[in-house]
Every structure is written in structure tokens, then in C-alpha cells.
Design brief:
Largest sheet: 6 strands, parallel
Strand order of the largest sheet: 3-2-1-9-10-11
Distance between the termini: 22 Å
Strand content: 15-25%
Bound molecules: ligand BJW, zinc ion
Radius of gyration: 19 Å
Length: 250
């Protein structure tokens, strides 16, 4: 499944950067965006995931996000999330960058998480930028409202919007400093997050991708592991631990 050299590099690395996408949550039952059963097959991004869509019909946009919140509340982290959380114990510095808004990495116990596309379980005032966890929202006519009277929107990054600056900066810094980069369950299409592993490639890191399908990144990296994250990641963790036990001096 993995080359011996990948296991050694991971087991001995100082800094690992991991980029995850919707694929890692697929086995928990959270739909991905693209592909056969992806959300964008049924719903149009322009009508639901842009600032214009929210201006035109905030109630419709919130209906979609409430539906997705309900899915996320009903699911659990899977063995892929759990393996990444456990991997924090095997490396001095592990930075987990996720495009996912579902919060499943935090629920599985990962500690250093950079959420580059926000979090669906939080809303943000479109007037004063105050943020609120979902369970503290006050709803009026199908939309949560802020103390200031403004409409709250999901605290996620829509097409055409900037990603949170500091979070993105930390992600690119980690890409430039890491020894190993893992790109897991992402179609590697949506910018600027898709550039993160490219930066790692350019900075000389060992880049490994885990996905049942190849992506635009695949031809440019050292190792592609074809498979589902929930199966591949526990095995990766097992092999890294085994390698570290055999060579305790790293
Ligand atoms: C498995 C699996 C299993 C299945 N195990 N794997 C440069 C070039 C071209 C375009 C642009 C560019 N720069 C900006 C753009 C425009 C745009 C963009 O990138 N468009 C592309 C689609 C072409 N980017 C933006 O608009 C971004 N903003 C920006 O750049 O602003 C700068 C700016 C500002 C102002 C003016 C001008 C410029 C913002 C992007 C925001 C993305 N938002 C979304 C929605 C978030 C909120 C929500 O959830 O509702 O983020 S879209 C959606 O895509 C979501 C995801 O995080 C993101 C990435 O998707 P991901 O995670 O890769 O999922 P999928 O479904 O695509 O792939 C799943 C993968 O898993 C597949 O590969 C499967 O094979 C695999 N898989 N099962 C492992 N079991
Ligand atoms: Zn407000």
C-alpha cells in the first residue's frame, strides 16, 4: 500500500502537513461536492454557495445549510479521522489543514486544525461580523438574526470570497516548512486551498496523496495511494507506529 521510504519519512519527520477534503468525511455519511453522488449534482453552487445567492434568497440558502447541519449532527467521525487524530502523537509537529466545514476532525480529537473554509456549525453577522455557535442563534422568519439587527450567514467561505487570512497564512507556512505532506480526499480543484500541496512539492517535501480517484495533483507528487481514507489511514498509522517501535531513536 505504501512504499517503505514513505513510512520511514513519516516516522522520522519533524513536521507533517495534512490537507483534507470532503472525501475523508464520505465514509461518515457526509456527501462530497463533486463526483457521482456529490452535492453539486443536485444543487447549483451559484444558487447556494455565493454571496449573491445569500443576498437574493437568504431563506433558501439557510434551508440548505440547515439540511446539511442536520446530516452532520447525525454522523460520527470515521476511522480515517481517528487515525489522523492519533497521528498527532507520532510526530512532533502535525498541522491539519481542512477544507471541510463539518467539524469532524475536532470531534475525533485532532488538536491543531486550520479550517480554511470555515465551520457550518457557526454563523457570522453580515453587518457586524459577530460570530455565534449554532445552538446560540436566534431565528426569525427562516434566518438567524444578530443582536445588532443584521442577518447572520453561515460562517463558511463561499465562491468569490477570501479565505480567513491568518489561517491561510499558517497553512502556506506549514506547506513551506513540512518534511511530508499528505493530501487526503480532495479533488484538488478549488483554489487557493488546492495550491497548498503544490507549495509543499515546490519546497521539497515528500508528498503523498490518498484518494480512490486520481486528481490534477497526482502526476506531480511522489506517491499516490488509491483507496478510501477510512481504510488507508488506519493502516498508515499502524505501519508508522511499527517503524517507530523498531527504530526508537527516529
Ligand atoms: C475519497 C473518498 C474516501 C471520495 N476517501 N477520498 C484560480 C484558478 C481557478 C479558479 C479560481 C482560482 N482562484 C479562485 C478561483 C475561484 C474559486 C475556485 O477555485 N473555483 C474552482 C472550482 C475552479 N475559488 C474561490 O472562489 C475561493 N475564493 C477565492 O479564491 O477568493 C479570492 C478572491 C476573492 C475576491 C475576488 C477575487 C478573488 C473560495 C472557495 C470556497 C469554496 N467553498 C466550498 C463551499 C464551502 C461552504 C460549504 O460547505 O457550503 O468549499 S465549495 C466546496 O469545494 C467546499 C470544499 O471545501 C471545496 C473543495 O472540495 P473537496 O473537499 O475537494 O471535495 P470534492 O467533492 O471536490 O472532492 C472529494 C474528493 O474525495 C474526490 O477526489 C473523491 O475522489 C474523494 N473521495 N470518497 C478518500 N472514502
Ligand atoms: Zn451583528
Amino acid at each position: 500500500m505504501f512504499s517503505e521510504s514513505a513510512i520511514k519519512k513519516i516516522g522520522r519527520s519533524e513536521t507533517i502537513l495534512i490537507l483534507t477534503g470532503a472525501g475523508i468525511s464520505a465514509e461518515s455519511g457526509v456527501p462530497t461536492f463533486r463526483g457521482e453522488n456529490g452535492l453539486w449534482k443536485k444543487y447549483k453552487p451559484k444558487e447556494l454557495a455565493t454571496p449573491d445567492a445569500f443576498r437574493n434568497d437568504p431563506v433558501l440558502v439557510w434551508e440548505w445549510y440547515r439540511y446539511r447541519r442536520d446530516i452532520i449532527r447525525s454522523v460520527e467521525p470515521n476511522p480515517g479521522h481517528l487515525a489522523l487524530a492519533a497521528m498527532e502523537e507520532t510526530v512532533p509537529n502535525l498541522v491539519l489543514v481542512t477544507q471541510n466545514v463539518d467539524g469532524l476532525h475536532a470531534r475525533s480529537g485532532s488538536k491543531r486544525i486550520l479550517e480554511v473554509h470555515g465551520n457550518i456549525m457557526r454563523s457570522r453577522c453580515s453587518q457586524c461580523a459577530r460570530t455565534l455557535p449554532a445552538d446560540e442563534e436566534t431565528w426569525r422568519n427562516g434566518v438567524p438574526v444578530c443582536e445588532c439587527g443584521g442577518m447572520m450567514r453561515p460562517d463558511v467561505v463561499w465562491f468569490g470570497e477570501s479565505l480567513p487570512r491568518q489561517v491561510l497564512k499558517e497553512a502556506f507556512t506549514a506547506a513551506e516548512e513540512c518534511d511530508v505532506c499528505l493530501s487526503i480526499g480532495t479533488s484538488a480543484l478549488v483554489q487557493p486551498a488546492a495550491s497548498i500541496p503544490w507549495h509543499a512539492v515546490q519546497a521539497g517535501a515528500y508528498v503523498l496523496e490518498i484518494n480512490p480517484e486520481s486528481t490534477p495533483l497526482t502526476p506531480h507528487i511522489q506517491e499516490f495511494v488509491k483507496g478510501k481514507a477510512g481504510i488507508v489511514l488506519p493502516e498508515l498509522l499502524r505501519q508508522v507506529r511499527e517503524q517507530q517501535q523498531k527504530n526508537p531513536g527516529r
